[in-house]
Amino acid sequence: MRTCLVVDDSSVIRKVARRILEGLDFQIMEAEDGEKALEVCKRGMPDAVLLDWNMPVMDGYEFLGNLRRMPGGDQPKVVFCTTENDVAHIARALHAGANEYIMKPFDRDIVTAKFQEVGLI
Amino acid sequence: MTPLDYEYLRKLLKERSGLDLSADKQYLVESRLVPLARRWNLAGIPELVQRMKNGVEALTTEVVEAMTTNETFFFRDKIPFDHLKEAVLPALAQARASRRSLRIWCAASSTGQEPYSIAMCLKEASALFAGWRIEIVATDLSRAVLEKARAGLFSQFEVQRGLPIHLLVKYFTQQGELWQLNAEIRGMVQHRQLNLLQDISHLGTFDVIFCRNVLIYFDQDTKAGIFAKLVRMLEPDGVLALGAAESVVGITNVFKPYPDRRGLYQPNTTPVARAGAALHLLKAVASAAR
To answer: Strands across the sheet with B255-257, in order?
Structure first.
């Protein structure tokens, strides 16, 4: 079973994402900020990361930079999932190594399409 | 809605659009037509049916359009577009190298996501087709969806259902809550109103036909008749793409599967298949004339 790390400071979003992704046969891990997410990745790289942008302690953009510099950190497919829905943010995320980008609000169809797009389904 | 009203609507929809409603789809008719009746200031479906029987053609057109399903999204099912990029376009680039032109038809184009997905595929493969004359013809029964398609304006939800993010950044500009497809991609697609049940031969011949997720709503004879029309409008080495839940198996032998590319078909040029196609076409012409 593939693994997905859901990184979001909102427990509601984590719960919604977990439900959708478990329905797509992913085993889910959760983190509420970028720093905790990096700890999870040090213990074992997930296959995918669903990543919020604005979070306390360490935001998603900084997490992504750190992840891509870690040994094996180029492996996980990273899908941003954020309220930052302008072209400038999207371009920054892609430049930093994001594979896909979801603009909140999202639904099951969108998550499925994006995970399909990056070859996770 | 009375059983008689339902039967009237079933018959009319079958004749006008090919939509084959089973006897248990009253809920679907009600969910689509009650809001339409309200817009026309009618009390309900019986009054709406009465107005249609009185010959209010504009209302009948709106009823047919409201009942035809328009769900679509960019790069729907992904695989047919992968086939297009990986196999079909490279093969046609070679086969049409002397002619340097390509015609693609999207036969149930709805609000434009499918023909625009094809246009983006071609734009991404522009190195293969520099200086070529490329035509993408998008047709649909509904004028309302064609109008939306021409505008090329999509909601945040619509651009996220299947459209890779790098293509969103590359080909769209943000306009408030909406995303506008750029003029170059929009200009690659011609939108036309067309009923697949009527004579469609005036569109000419194509190298690729996308006819996806429309035949599922038709009965077997109607499907066979449409396949017979499509095969005559496809070049002998052309390609037909059907929807994920659609197939020619058990309906017609005028098409055969494209090798190793699920969902794609090629004309079957054997004499038996051609004779079968001619027969289905005669039936379709006779049915349209009735």
So the answer is: B189-193, B133-140, B101-106, B206-211, B234-242, B264-267, B255-257
